[in-house]
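A quick aside before the break. I want you to see a complete sequence-to-structure record at least once, exactly as it would be stored in a machine-readable document. Don't worry about memorizing anything.
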Amino acid sequence: MTENTEKVWNTCGYVRLSREDGDKEESNSVTGQKDLIRDFLSRHPELRECGMKVDDGFTGSNFERPAFQEMLAEVKSGKINCIVVKDLSRFGREHLDAGKYIERIFPFLGVRFIAINDHYDSLHSHAESDELIVPFKNLINEAYCRDISIKIRSQLEIKRRRGDFIGSFAVFGYKKDPDDHHKLLVDDYAAEVVRDIFRWKLEGISAIDVASRLTATGIPTPMEYKQSIGLRYTNAFRVKEDSVWSAGMVLRILKNPVYIGVLEQGRVTTPSYKVKRLVNKPREEWAVVEGCHEPIIDRFDFESIQKVLAMDTRTSVSGRAVECFSGMVYCGECGSAMIRKTIPSAKKKYVYYVCAAHKNDKTCFAHSLRDAALDEIVLEALKQHIQDVINLSDLLELTDTAKLQQAGVQKLKSRLEKKQAEIDRYQTLLRSLYENLTDGIIDRNEYQDFKQSYARRRAEAEEQADAIREEMNREMDNFSEGRGWMEQFRKHRNIEALDRSIVVSLIERIMIFRDRRVEIVYRWHNEFQWQADLLAKAQQTLPETEAI
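That is the input. The structure line, written in tokens, reads:
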């Protein structure tokens, strides 16, 4: 015993502070733990300080901490043979791993372990009591860690659901509000870059060419920009020393609804506080809140971009932009995509749209249309539709359709209430059938017949109720959508030529039939028809002298 107590131990103090308990107690601070350990070492001359390892901001639920791993490496190299911590919770909160180190690894490596506030010293441990007390304290520490994890998850989810931004860094284009870090403010410089990216994409520039343009003009990448304004920002996407814009960066910006004021958070999680592997959550479990901050991009433009990104578009021969109708032309006979085919003739080249199904599989009719002819047809048709929308808008301004809209919704509500009463009636009849059977009012055959009949009628009524709800939802969507979409057509009323931006903004798809007939499906075609029908109904209810 005398030989052991006189031995000099090469001692390392270990300090750990996690985010969740960083501000709770001064004694738990990094400085507080260091002072406690050094005071302890000063009163035990046999413990010679050879270092102090600090893991600041690391959870105690696992031992994958940089400073701890450095200390373990020094233990294995023989530089350290004694470790001192403030208490067992600072060492770790996962009882199995903590017990493994204290009871197996450290004794095997000849390491003395001391937890000051828990009065534990492996050199003077009492086998029977410590076998119970140390594992029990480790269990308590783990329970605390689990409880803290649950509380933090719950609080973060509450913040997400009410539209608070909880990211460490603001998305490119925004900055955190200095008065409330859970709110986003527009960053003027970065926002202009974002607007350019959306505008170029809407004009038909490919993502890789947008990236090249940004790099060539010296625009800093999102990471470089954040670092340039003093943020300690890194991300997992950087793979090169020379950070340049990439198509992936551009696409992430183009697909992010944060730029229209929508926060989508909570898309990934971890299985538990012990397992830090990230897993994707189903979309219905995301926290999606609209109107959280000022939008940078117009919603109509954002939706147009999403439509463009969903298309299988190709760059033009010049490589600078996609073709005007790329990804939007379909065969009216079979529904397959129409593809561009260039046919040289003498010194000229003629471009035709041909059915892909006929060209590749010979499963459709051989029909085609020159691109110049399609351009002319679409331009004239779009001009006419724009005028139709403007005329409809003007007439709606002169006609009071609000009462008619509300009356339509109320009528559907009344129909739904009656249908629900019918469903409830059949449900009551089904419940009473068994009582009638046990009371002898009906026999078993009659019971089965009535049961099937009532169940079938209830199912039919439920289907009809669902159909009414869908119709109500459409009516409410149209009512809330209003006529803002009409302005998208009105602002192109002086159109003289087609470009990619106009086509993707106003047209859903173009269909070419074998008789060279072209059919165009415009964006908001359902809203147009609904408003036109509403106007017709409103005009029918007016006296002849007031009718337009």
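Two observations worth writing down. Residues 444-481 form the longest helix (38 residues). Residues 237-241, 544-548 have pLDDT under 50 and may be disordered. We'll return to this after the break.
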